[in-house]
Design a protein that fits this description.
single chain; alpha+beta; Nucleotidyltransferase, domain 5; SH3 type barrels; 2 domains; 7 helices; 9 strands
């Protein structure tokens, strides 16, 4: 993974200011951490079971899989040959948020296809190299400003819909919580499993949405998103006076 980041990101597009990854072991290796440290790249990670943090790339993965399903063979052995063609088609199609092609946003010009070669499309033959460079820089500047406006508008629209159903929850240090920990077992249906079977204690509130939680069966405390926590509610038993946890039998 460190080699992929160097060869296909940094040496192609330059040094990023920061890299956002999930909790995959290939991203959390000592080699990847050392690479980011030496290059001065701020490496941040999303909390576990929170794919919404990488919502943009997750949405792209869904679109990619949908397109790949329509072109690969039945045995799916030819997917490496199809991948570049599918990616080219995606980069040549207008994005719903910006109404611009990703290829046009990144390069300042639309990709040429075979029909353009047949028609003899050579729009830059009439200008010199300095004139073309100036026009390209100005075009990219206008495109990037427009993209920022469109993406901010799309983000605000999406946020307004999310906030309609989202309910803020706050926990204090020492609160008992049930932690969302889905596990899959061979031969068992996940619909019958109890995803909130782990019970832990809040150790620290890191920010508005993440907490450091300690559970009895864990080797070390973990950082958990607030959406994956449920407060433990206990009620007195009707006769014995003991407390009951409504989340467990």
């Amino acid at each position: 993974m460190a080699k992929v980041i160097m060869d296909h990101i940094i040496l192609v597009w330059g040094h990023p200011f920061e890299i956002l990854t999930d909790q995959g072991l290939e991203f959390n290796s000592e080699l990847s951490d050392e690479l980011c440290r030496l290059l001065g790249v701020n490496k941040i990670r999303s909390t576990a079971y929170r794919p919404e943090t990488q919502g943009t790339i997750e949405r792209w993965h869904g679109t990619l899989h949908s397109m790949m399903a329509k072109v690969v063979q039945e045995n799916q052995s030819d997917w490496p040959e199809c991948l570049k063609h599918v990616t080219f088609c995606y980069n040549s199609t207008c994005h719903s948020s910006t109404s611009l092609e990703p290829h046009f946003v990144m390069t300042g010009q639309r990709p040429r296809c075979n029909v353009d070669l047949l028609l003899g499309d050579k729009p830059h033959d009439s200008c010199t190299v300095p004139e073309y460079t100036r026009q390209l820089v100005e075009r990219l500047h206008r495109i990037h400003e427009l993209v920022r406006v469109c993406l901010n508008r799309s983000a605000a629209y999406t946020s307004s819909w999310y906030n309609r159903i989202a309910k803020p929850v706050t926990f204090m240090k020492g609160d008992e919580v049930h932690v969302y920990s889905p596990c899959t077992y061979k031969g068992r249906t996940p619909k019958w499993n109890l995803p909130y079977k782990d019970t832990g204690t809040i150790l620290q509130r890191l920010n508005k949405v993440t907490y450091r939680v300690k559970c009895k069966g864990w080797k070390a405390p973990r950082v958990v998103h607030v959406d994956k926590l449920k407060r433990v509610k206990r009620f007195p038993a009707p006769e014995s006076g003991e407390t009951l946890d409504p989340n467990h039998d």
